[in-house]
Design brief:
Elements lengths: L2 H19 L6 E2 L1 H10 L5 E2 L2 E4 L2 E2 L9 E2 L2 E4 L48 E9 L4 E16 L2 E11 L6 E7 L4 E3 L16 E2 L5 E3 L5 E5 L6 E5 L7 E3 L9 E3 L2 E3 L3 E3 L5 E3 L2 E3 L3 E3 L5 E2 L5 E6 L2 E5 L8 E5 L7 E7 L2 E6 L19 E3 L2 E3 L3 E4 L7 E2 L5 E2 L7 E2 L10 E11 L7 E8 L9 E6 L12 E13 L4 E14 L5 E4 L7 E3 L5 E9 L7 E11 L1
Parallel strand pairs: 1-4, 2-5, 3-6, 17-20, 18-21, 19-22
Antiparallel strand pairs: 7-8, 8-9, 9-10, 10-11, 12-13, 13-14, 14-15, 15-16, 23-24, 24-25, 26-27, 27-28, 29-30, 31-43, 32-43, 33-42, 34-42, 35-38, 35-43, 36-37, 36-42, 38-39, 39-40, 39-41
Length: 548
């Protein structure tokens, strides 16, 4: 009998023995059978359709090219442990692109209303590592399991990846839902993260980040009710936008340093504790620079700088140099509309130097008003007043305008000087000259105040082209809408009748005149002849007023 024949014979006998014993109930085939088998087996062996019902198979070892074709464990039987020292391969063929089960771990118990979830069995991978601190080998494991759930009447599924270190409690650092939501407790390290166009990156209960369009990123709070947009659609430029990406946003920072230009436009603002730029800082027309809570400035037009307080309702002081009382600093201090040259801390006054200082209203030196003179004069003679016996004004018009405010404080002075030529018809003819302040040029309307007048002067001779002059000095006693002005002749009016003879009227006032010093006032002069003779004529050739 050949060796191969004996092997086959023994195998048949052993198989018959197994089939005979199996119906007897639970049996245990121990390592002895395996040892016996190993004594017989020198080549390949295939177990086909081995079924264990209510029993166990222990200590079965396959070596070489042994194969289990089908192993069914049912009843109370268990497949407790499979030990392998080599590569185990599950092989299926001819699948093409069809998704096909290869290894199934399943819990077939149906969920009920009382037990709403039946979790899947989990696969577990374990290895060991040496703990050099404790000088002990520790077992570290990973598990993967499927946890179904019922949500709003429908079921969901969560694939959970858990880990156990040194036999500790399993924690789950990564969870994937059936909707594709991946939750990771740690850090994702990789080349890149790609999401769909409408997806967001979200921190739990915290910030959301999305990209509304190419070149734009939005950063939101968790409720998407507040946020900021970044626009990089222009190469080399980052724009800060609102979260709708339809208007400029604002930037607030402790310190900002820029190597290029800083440009603000639209409705946004740039707020920094410190700003440094190697090029221009540009702000669009109509927008302002602010030192938060303090002062600000803007440029209302080309070449114009405007400074204001934080409320943009006024301004106090512009300091040049140190903000103290030393000579290292000085300031322009705005006090009730008056610009003062003061020390840096505004505790005292400082000097001003210049070739010319022009002031149309009050100028103060050491806190005392010094009024710049206002000079009024004419450039041509005014038309003669002739052939009339009614009061007639010289055509001084705007030449006699004292601007509003020019005399609006006590101790202002108005000096009026007139000179010209006149003629009379005869020795009995008379002339009356009046000085008036009028709120309307020509005194035809508005408020007219007569501040001085000659008496009815009789030159006493028939003359022609003789000289005349008048000099009147007026002091402002009180200012305001009902200010008071006192005017006296110095010496008054002089009408020459020959080279060495003249008639003088001293123009005396015993009371003051009430004048509104807050408005424009026009110096006006009228003449009244006693008859309308063509020889009764007077011309004002030289008009001068000095206000100081």
């Amino acid at each position: 009998m050949s060796s191969q024949y004996r092997k086959n014979y023994i195998f048949i006998v052993l198989t018959a023995l197994l089939l005979a014993v199996a119906p007897l109930g639970a049996q245990t085939f121990t390592a002895q059978i395996n040892s016996f088998w190993n004594l017989l087996r020198t080549g390949s062996l295939t177990f086909t359709n081995i079924s264990v019902t209510g029993g166990s198979i222990t200590g079965v070892t396959l070596t070489g090219s042994g194969v289990f074709t089908t192993l069914t464990v049912s009843g109370t039987s268990t497949l407790a442990t499979v030990n392998t020292s080599g590569l185990e391969t599950l092989t299926q063929t001819g699948l093409g692109t069809t998704s096909t089960d290869g290894w199934i771990l399943q819990n077939t118990t149906a969920a009920t209303a009382g037990t709403t979830v039946q979790i899947s069995p989990r696969s577990k991978w374990c290895g060991t590592a040496w703990n050099s601190g404790g000088s002990v080998s520790e077992t570290d494991c990973w598990v993967i399991e499927n946890l179904p759930a019922t949500v709003a009447g429908t079921t969901t599924s969560t694939l959970k990846f858990g880990s156990s270190i040194a036999g500790g409690v399993v924690t789950y650092p990564m969870i994937l839902t059936n909707a594709g939501a991946l939750t990771i407790l740690g850090t994702i390290t990789g080349v890149g993260i790609a999401t769909s166009a409408t997806s967001s990156i979200t921190w739990s209960s915290r910030t959301n980040i999305n990209s509304p369009s190419d070149g734009q990123i939005n950063v939101f709070n968790n409720a998407n009710t507040a946020g900021i947009g970044l626009d990089a659609t222009t190469d080399g430029t980052i724009k800060i936008r609102n979260r709708a990406q339809n208007a400029d946003g604002s930037l607030t920072a402790g310190t900002a340093q820029f190597n290029g230009s800083v440009t603000g436009s639209g409705g946004g603002s740039l707020s920094v504790g410190g700003l440094s730029s190697t090029q221009n800082v540009n702000v669009s027309t109509g927008f302002n620079y602010f030192i938060l809570g303090r002062a600000g400035w803007t440029s209302p037009s080309d070449g114009v700088a405007q400074f204001f307080n934080n409320a943009q309702s006024g301004f106090t002081r512009l300091v040049l140099g140190t903000n103290d009382a030393t000579t290292n600093g000085s300031s322009w201090n705005l006090n009730a509309g008056v610009l003062e040259a003061k020390t840096g801390d505004a505790t005292g006054f400082t000097g001003i130097k210049g070739s010319t200082i022009n002031a149309t209203t009050a100028l103060q030196v050491n806190g005392v008003s010094v009024n710049p003179p206002t000079v009024l004069t004419n450039t041509a003679p005014y038309a003669a007043i002739v052939s009339t016996n009614t009061e007639t004004f010289f055509g001084i018009g705007s030449d006699g305008l004292i601007p509003a405010g020019a005399i609006n404080s006590a101790k202002h002075r108005i000096s009026i000087e007139l000179a010209g030529i006149y003629g009379t018809n005869g020795v009995t003819d008379t002339i009356n000259i009046k000085f008036k302040l009028c709120t309307v040029s020509g005194c035809g309307s508005g408020t007219v105040v007569q501040v001085a007048a000659t008496g009815v002067v009789t030159p006493g001779a028939a003359v022609s082209n003789q000289g005349w002059n008048s000099r009147l000095m007026c002091n402002v006693f009180t200012a305001g809408a009902s200010g008071t002005v006192d005017c006296q002749g110095q010496p008054g009016s002089v009408l020459f009748t020959a080279l060495t003879t003249s008639i003088i009227d001293d123009i005396v006032n015993t009371t003051t005149s009430t004048v509104d010093t807050t408005v424009n006032e026009y110096v006006s002069v009228s003449v009244t002849w006693n008859n309308n003779s063509a020889n009764n004529t007077i011309t004002l050739r030289n008009f001068g007023v000095l206000v100081y």
